[in-house]
Fold:
Amino acid sequence: MTNAVAADSAIAAEPKRNSLTMGKRRLSDEILKLLIYLSVFFSVLLAAGILCCVISKGISSVSWEFLTTVTSTLKGTVGIAGNIVNTLYIIVLTLLIATPIGVGSAIYLNEYARPGRLVGLIEFTTETLSGIPSIIFGLFGMVFFGNTLGLGYSILTGTLTLTLMILPLITRNTQEALKTVPDSYRCGALGMGVTRWYMIRTILLPSAMPGIITGIILAIGRIVGESAALLFTAGSGYLLPKAGMGLISKIMESGGTLTIQLYLSMSKANYEAAFGIAAVLLIIVLGINLLTKYAAGKLDVNKNG
Structure:
């Protein structure tokens, strides 16, 4: 009888202990959730603060003349049209070169190469490249592309240098995106008799597209924000390209981006123009990111449809 009463008491006490433990867990969950929300709020507040500060100080300097002319002492104009064109040139050319190479390298490492020392060495080298300071890339680009290959100070020299800088970013993001695709997709496709490349092209790449797009967006941010490497490679030219073949030959000419012009304006204590350039730079980055997100969304819709 006594044993039965003790057993009943133990059973009655067990739910209390469990409920206390669950209560503590729920409290810790709420605290962690609060910390997560605070982190998100702080990140959004920080981004909004930077945008508001820069745009509020620089929007007064932005005008149609500022956006469509180049700086000229004879005409008395201050404009950044040439710098905007140079920035777009470098973004487009760098992505055209780096994206196929980066995505292709990730596909090889993740889908074709056998895990081993070679793959580990390549991944280690890629991670090391991503940590090298940009000014060292600039020195290498100036010596190798500019002097050895004879490209001089040009948009092409800057483009090739930036390609080396963003390749690790695109490769690693694509590799991680491919790893998130379930192995059942691969097994199912190969089991149906399709080739490996067909499986990669029609199943893996569409499934990994959000991660690949994220890597491209991060790469665009680094291209647009780079200045140290471009000072040694692309130069600081600000003239607009001539019509016709001048649009092609422009890549062999010196071309200063918006960040280069921003640095030069700050060094000359021309703060109004500097904040105006910063505001235009932020708007361009936001526009490119939104356009990239829209393209990724369309791809996702087409894939699901």
The two ends are 69 Å apart (CA to CA). The CA atoms of residues 68 and 157 lie 26 Å apart. Strands lie at 70-72, 77-80.
